[in-house]
Structure formats: structure tokens, C-alpha cells
Amino acid sequence: MRSAKDIVVKPISSKDAGRIVRSIHYSGKTTQNSQLHFGVFLDGKCEGALQFGPSIDKRRMLGLVANTGWNEFIELNRMAFSEALPRNSESRAISVCLKLIKKHYPNIKWVVSFADGTQCGDGTIYRASGFCLTSVKKNSTMLLMPDGSITADKSLNNSASTKKAGWWKKNGAVSLVGFQLRYIYFIDKESKNNLTVPILPFSKIEEMGAGMYKGKARVKQAMTSNHEEQRQCDTDLPAPKEN
């Protein structure tokens, strides 16, 4: 039986990462401004991808950790894994990526990512990978479009189209109500002392009713460490502004 130790994680091109993400990720969309791209290989075949890049609202994210320079943090924008990968591949892949970032990009002190508790899951993989939970908030920024697709209102507002989120809401788009969870991993452990927001206990997820498993709400169950539950749908679309 294959195990997570059998996977190989290495840099790939933006084009290849985009192709993998579009074919596997639940959103079917890639992040256009991602800068670092890693492929997850099993027996020589790429079965997953991780994309890292700047946050869409980088200036606001910067304030999460005091004394952070403009290029001293990065966001895990997308993570998508096929069912062919062994159990626990997600946490192993993240671990390898973080080690590569630490080695080749020593300026990066921390990584932020968001779990989509509206459509997908509450971040089991992040908890298993040593990330800190720093926010659990209600989220109504995801829109179900008239054609059945789902997109973030910020993506619409940032597009070149004159049809912004407000227009779509008046013409058939419906807001999906759920949660968004923010996680931070400290590559530079000292930077954790500069965190400007509280680290929340994982029990806060259940307390707020934000638990989600494969797109379905959890009902009063402990936060598990079953990594497979979020396969194909680990990260949200670019994060909206914090209130």
C-alpha cells in the first residue's frame, strides 16, 4: 500500500499548476497572481498542486503580524489533490512546501490561508499541519450565479466587467451563507510573538457552528484529523477584506 512518504513534492510551472487546479479544485478556478507553484507527484504523475502568492488585500493582511515587511509573508491560495494520492499526503506536501520556502525564500516569515466553511471544509489539514486558527467569521461573500457557478463577490468587483456583485445580486445571484476560517503558520517562530490577533482554540469552530465536512455542516463532533475529508477543496477563493 502506498503511503504519504511515497509522494514527491517539487516546483512546477504556473501553467501546469493551473491545469491541475482547474481539473481538481472544487472551484474549478486558479489564482491568477500566485507566484510559487508546487506539484505533488506519485509514481511520476502529478496528482496535486499547491499555489502560493500575495493576498488579494495584502495591506490589510500585513497588519496581522506586527513588524512584517511587505514581502515577508505569503498566502497559500490554492491546494488541490486527486483521490489517487495516499492518506496524509496533504499535510506531508504542506510540510515539504514550507521547508522549501524557508530554504529558498528566507524573507518569508509566515503563511496565511483560508478554509472555505461555506462550500467545503473547516481546515482539518491546516490544524494537522501546525497552523494556528486566528479567525472564524460568518461569510456571505460567495455568490451562487444564475448559471449555477459560484464566485466571490470581490472577484466580480475586481474584474474589468461593469457587472459588479451588486448588479448580479439584483439579477439572480444568491449569497451563500457560511463561514470563513483563517489560519497562519509561522515559518519564523519568533514572529508568532508579534501576532496582533488572538490564537483561537480549535473548539471555537464547533462552538460557532462552523464545522464543515465535504461541503456539509458537522453536527456536534470533535475536530478530526482525517486529512482526506478536505481533498479537492482546501482553500477558499482570495480572501475578502476583514471587517
Notes on the protein architecture:
The chain contains 7 helices and 10 strands. With 243 residues, the protein is α+β, with helices and mostly antiparallel strands. The protein has a single domain (4-230), classed as Aminopeptidase, CATH 3.40.630.30. The strands form 2 sheets. An 8-stranded mixed beta sheet has the order 1-2-3-4-5-8-6-7, with helices on both faces. The model is unreliable at 219-230 and 232-243 (pLDDT under 50).
Topology:
Elements: E1 8-11, H1 14-24, E2 36-42, E3 45-53, H2 58-62, E4 73-81, H3 89-104, E5 110-116, H4 124-128, E6 132-144, E7 150-152, H5 153-157, H6 165-169, E8 174-186, H7 203-207, E9 212-213, E10 216-217
Parallel strand pairs: 4-5
Antiparallel strand pairs: 1-2, 2-3, 3-4, 5-8, 6-7, 6-8, 9-10
Helix coverage percent = 10-25%
CATH hierarchy: architecture: 3-Layer(aba) Sandwich
Question: What is the CATH C-level name?
Answer: Alpha Beta
Number of strands: 10
Low-confidence stretches: 219-230, 232-243
Shape: globular
Give the ordered list of helices and strands: EHEEHEHEHEEHHEHEE
Average pLDDT number: 83
- Which topology does CATH recognise? Aminopeptidase
Q: Tags for this entry?
A:
28% strand; Aminopeptidase; globular; 243 residues; alpha+beta; 7 helices; two-stranded antiparallel sheet
